[in-house]
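dumping this here before i forget
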Amino acid sequence: MQKEDQKPVRVDRRDFIKATTLASMAGALPGASLLAQNTPMPSKPGNAGKTRKVLFASDSPSSYEKLIDSIKAIREYEFQVIPIQASLQQKPQEVARSVRELSPDILIIRPTVRTAVGNIGNIALSMVDLDIPIILVPVNLDLIMMDTDLVAAMRTRGANAVLANSEAHAVELLKIFAVPRILDGKQALIFGRPFDSTSVPMGNLSEDYVYKRTGFRIQYRPVDDLMPLLEKVDEAAALKELERWKKEAARVLEPSDKTILDAARLYILLRSLVEKESLAAISIDCLSFSFSGKPPLPLPCLAFTRLRDEGITAPCEADVCGLLTSMVLQEISRKPAYQCNVSEVDLQKSIAILRHCVAPLQLMGRNAPPLAYNLRDYHGLGKGATAEVEFPSGIDVTLGLFSKDLKSFVLWPGKTQSRVNDIDRPPIEKAPPASATSKVRKYCSNQLAVKLKDIERLHQNLAGCHHVMIAGTHEKAIREEMMRMGVGILGPSDMSSPA
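structure:
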C-alpha cells in the first residue's frame, strides 16, 4: 500500500479520449426520441396527501353511478368525485373551463363522439392546456375507433391522455395516477455550466422544461464554488472516512492515503450540502477537470459511490438524463444505481459491456452484503481514487435511460454474466515503458457484461452515452411511473429476463 502520492501522469484529455475511444464521449444514437415525439406532457405536481379530486365529465353522469361508486370505494386514497354533465364534442371548452375552476387532480371523460356531429378537431385543442391526467372511457367498448383517435389527438397536443378498456380498467388507471410522481417536489444541485456538461451537453433542456415534464427542480453553480468549501471540512470526519475505505477494501493498489483523504473530504462536503439544502441529488461536471494535470478538486468517484450507497442520487459528469433516471430507478428498486457507459455491444452473443469508474457497493440493497472492491487510481493517471467492484454474475438487472427530450424511456431487462477482467489494458498496446501512456488504463475501473434480449433493437435505440442499471426487475412499477409522467416506454417485446 502506498503512503505518498504517485507522480501524476500528464495526459492531454483530448488525446486520451482519442486513443481510448471512451464510450462516454460518444453521441447518442437516434431512434428513441423519434418514436416519442407525440408522447404527452405530464400533469402538474401531484397531491401529496390522501385526498384526490376527480372530475367526471359525461353527457349523462347519472347513467354511470356504478362507475362513480367504484371510484369512491378505492381504499388507497379518498376520492372525491365531481360529476358534471357536458358534451365533450359539442362544447369541449366547458369541460376545460370546469377543470380550471374546480382544480381536480384527474379528469375522467366518457364522451359520446359521432362523426356526423363534427367539431372533433376542437376537442383536442380545448384539452391542450390541461395539466392533469385525462382518462377517456369509451361508451361503446366494441366501437372505440373515434375514442382512440381522440386520445391520440390529445397526446399530440401535449395532454397526458390515456384510453381505458373498461370501467374496471379506468379504476385501475385512477389508482396509478393517484400516486405522486417520484420526482415531484425534489431538487438537485449540479456544479457546472447549466445544461452544458463537458461529456453530455443538454442544450435542448432548461430548468423550466425539466420542471414542467417531471416536477423536478435543478439548480446550477460554478465548479469553483466547491474549492473554498473544501477547506472548511471537518478533518476528523474525513480521516474516519479514509480509514473506512482502507479497512473495507480487499486491496489498495495505487491510491495513496492523501488521495483517499482528499476524496473523503469531498464526500463530507457533498453530504453536508445535501443535508443543508434538502437535496435529492447532487453532481459535478467532473470530466471538465478529471484529465487535467492538476485537477482543482479531488476526483469525486469515491464520494459518488458512498452517496449512492446512502440513497442519494449522485450521477457522474453532470448528466441530467442520468440523474433523473438514477433517481427514478433508485426510488423504485430501493437500491443504488450503476450509471455506466454502454461501451461495447456484441450482437452475436447478445452481450453489452457496461463500464464506469463509479459503481455502488450496495448494488443488491442496503441490507445485503456490500460488493468486494479494490481501490484503484483514475485510469492509471496516478491521481484520484475509485472503487473497482466485483459484480455478481447471474443476477437479473434493469437497464434504463430517459431520452434527451425526456419524452421516452429506454427500458431493457438483462442478466449479468461472468467475464475476464480487462480494465488494465493500456490505450496503446505494447507502448514503450517510458512513454506517458505506459501506465494509463484504457478502460474505466469497473466493467460488467450483461446479456440482453433483442440487443440489435437496443443498439439502435441507445438514448445516450450513459445508461443506468439497477439490480432486479421492476417493469410494472417503472411503466406506471412513466405513465404518470406522460413518458413512452421503448423496450423489447418480451420483457422477461434473458435465460
